């Protein structure tokens, strides 16, 4: 395999990694939106403006997190599968970068946290 073919393979691997990263981000976004919609439906207020409004209480946030984790449990297999795939892809990319002797390896986003807020469940 020529160097040009190896670089094309590296570009392809990086594109696949980014595709999976974006897919995981979409899953997280969908779960957050659905959990917020469920919370707004189940805990009605006179005015509903979403999580960032002044009417969103601590109890609303707790209810939102419960719904979010329920949704996360439903999609756990997909999330774990994508995360493992991204880990393998990152290792393969690092191996190819090392083999090619590149001084400036491509920056890859890490596996994103699916959980809302700052911490892991």
Give a brief description.
This protein is an all-alpha fold and 121 residues long.
Describe, in plain words, how this protein is organized in 3D:
By secondary structure, the chain is mainly α. It has one domain (3-100). Helix content is 68%, strand content 0%. The protein has helices at residues 3-42, 58-74, 76-100. The longest helix has 40 residues, at 3-42.
List the helices and strands and how they pair.
Elements: H1 3-42, H2 58-74, H3 76-100
Note the main attributes of this structure.
mainly alpha; single chain; 121 residues; disordered C terminus; elongated
Tell me the β content.
Answer: under 5%
Our count of domains comes out at 1
Helix and strand content put the structural class at: mainly alpha
Gyration radius, to the nearest Å? 20 Å
């Amino acid at each position: 395999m020529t160097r040009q073919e190896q670089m094309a393979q590296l570009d392809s691997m990086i594109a696949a990694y980014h595709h999976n990263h974006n897919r995981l981000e979409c899953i997280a976004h969908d779960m957050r939106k659905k959990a917020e919609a469920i919370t707004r439906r189940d805990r009605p207020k006179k005015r509903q403006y979403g999580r960032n409004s002044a009417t969103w209480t601590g109890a609303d946030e707790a209810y939102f997190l419960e719904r979010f984790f329920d949704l996360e449990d439903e999609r756990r297999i997909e999330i774990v599968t994508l995360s493992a795939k991204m880990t393998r892809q990152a290792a393969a990319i690092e191996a190819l970068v090392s083999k090619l002797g590149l001084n400036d390896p491509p920056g890859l986003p890490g596996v994103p946290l699916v959980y809302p807020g700052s911490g892991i469940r």
